[in-house]
Amino acid sequence: MQSGNPAGRRIRTTPPVRPLRFAATDPKAASRRNRRHAHPPPGRNQYLHLGGESFPLNVMSNFFATAWQPFTPQGVAAFALAPLRRLLLIQFIVALWVAAGVTWFCYDRYVPVISGAISQLPATSQIRHRQLEWHGPAPVILHENGFLAVSVSTHPPASLRSVADIQCDLGRNRLTVFSLLGYAEWPYPSGWIISLGREELEPLWGAWRPGVLTGVFVATAGGLMLAWGGLATLYAGPAWWLALYLNRRLTWRGSWKLSGAALLPGALLMLLAISFYDLGVMNLIGLLSVLGMHFFVGWVGLLLGLFATSMAQPVAARNPFAHPRKR
What we know:
This protein is an alpha+beta fold and 327 residues long. It has eight helices and ten strands. Helix 6 (252-262) runs antiparallel to helix 8 (284-308). It is elongated and about 100 Å long. It starts with 26 loop residues before the first helix and ends in a 19-residue tail after the last helix. Residues 20-26, 33-40 and 47-61 have low confidence and may be disordered.
């Protein structure tokens, strides 16, 4: 008798049937499921379900530490590791805000005074050979408010002083600007004939007024970007040395970005002060005080941002007498 398969056919063996395990009844499956939900694997987000929406918990916990706002120490410190384009974008947005506030202040307080002073000019007056040829009453204040005044005084002893914060006085041979800090004089340019007739200046000012306001906006925004870049370069060196003393993980490039981000809260404080000055809530002395204070705000933000940066990890010393494989 021969054993096996004489015809050479393959015999299929049926695998053993495994018992089914249900999560509700099997304790091992239930424990694995509980461990998986209680301790999710690294790299996978945990979600908070609120009102039918799911929010990643790890993203929400790091929301205020992301480089998008420079108003907290963690937010300032986050710019040290963020790309440079992120810092430039936030600086550009803040510069646009401040430029819009400065342009609105000029439009609201200075433009009406200039328009009113032009409307009070005589029909024929000019500056010729560095001398003012005035055909009207003098001394006289053409137009004024609490912020700006325009006056004419052909005889210096008979000049009029205004209660405005800034006064521009047209003298016989020079322009004098008075303010709380004193006065400054500029002689008229030689070889120029500048017409001061009302009929010529009114249409000219009406045509150039939008361009002048646009120039104020562009000059303010561009000047802020250049000023922040210069101050960040000035602060980067001391910030890097202080970070080295505090054992903080910060490079020179990171210290430059950290310094640039710390300057933004002071700029917004200055914008708030200009708004209060425009509304009459703050006078010129208060505005100048905030002007000096906003630099101090930048220094404090820089120090707090340095303390909020992560500390450098110490390097473990190697044993020179250990086996090469155990070093």
